């Protein structure tokens, strides 16, 4: 995944899988309910356990790249179902999404959205 300073998903829970963030470049701050925020720098990882509200925020000034590993397949299916086919062989600008549509897609895959981007546990 890639992101720029301030990028943050909605606060959410994965009900069926753990999520691991491994930073390649830049820095993330991972917020997991019940824990202090974890700063994840290149070469470091952080786990957000299933069933626990969490979100991340890109905190580096430059671009940030990271890998996401999941213990199941529901997140991969969510990404597939929410994706828009690329029109060119370049990285696209993030499209605008209907929050209600994303909420419905997420719910079908066992992911519960708890608040808009910027909401912390």
Task: Present the secondary structure layout.
Blueprint (H helix, E strand, L loop, with lengths): L1 E2 L6 E5 L4 E7 L2 E5 L5 E3 L4 E4 L5 E5 L5 E7 L3 H9 L16 H10 L2 E7 L4
Antiparallel strand pairs: 1-8, 2-9, 3-6, 3-8, 4-5, 4-7
Helix pairs in contact: 1-2
Low-pLDDT sequence parts = none
Given the C-alpha coordinates, what overall shape results? globular
**H and E string:** EEEEEEEEHHE
- CATH superfamily label: Jelly Rolls
Distance between the termini: 22 Å
CATH architecture: Sandwich
How many E strands?
A: 9
- Major sheet summary line: 4 strands, antiparallel
Mean pLDDT: 90
Count every helix, treating DSSP H or I runs of 4 or more residues as helices: 2
CATH class type: Mainly Beta
User: Into which percentage range does the β-strand content fall?
Assistant: 35-45%
Rg over alpha carbons: 14 Å
Q: Strands across the major sheet, in which order?
A: 1-8-3-6
Query: In the CATH scheme, what's the topology name?
Result: Jelly Rolls
Helix/sheet category:
alpha+beta
Q: Residue share in helices?
A: 10-25%
How many structural domains are formed by the residues? Answer: 1
């Amino acid at each position: 995944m890639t992101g720029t300073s301030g990028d943050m998903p909605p606060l959410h829970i994965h009900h069926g899988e753990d999520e691991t963030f491994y930073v390649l470049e830049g820095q993330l701050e991972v917020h997991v309910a019940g824990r202090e925020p974890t700063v994840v720098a290149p070469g470091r990882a952080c786990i957000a356990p299933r069933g626990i509200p969490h979100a991340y925020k890109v905190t580096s000034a430059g671009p940030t790249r990271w890998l996401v590993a999941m213990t199941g397949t529901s997140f991969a299916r969510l990404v597939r179902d929410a994706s828009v086919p690329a029109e060119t062989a370049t990285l696209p600008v993030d499209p605008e999404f209907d929050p209600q549509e994303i909420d419905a897609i997420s719910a079908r895959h066992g992911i519960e959205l708890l608040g808009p981007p910027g909401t912390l546990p």
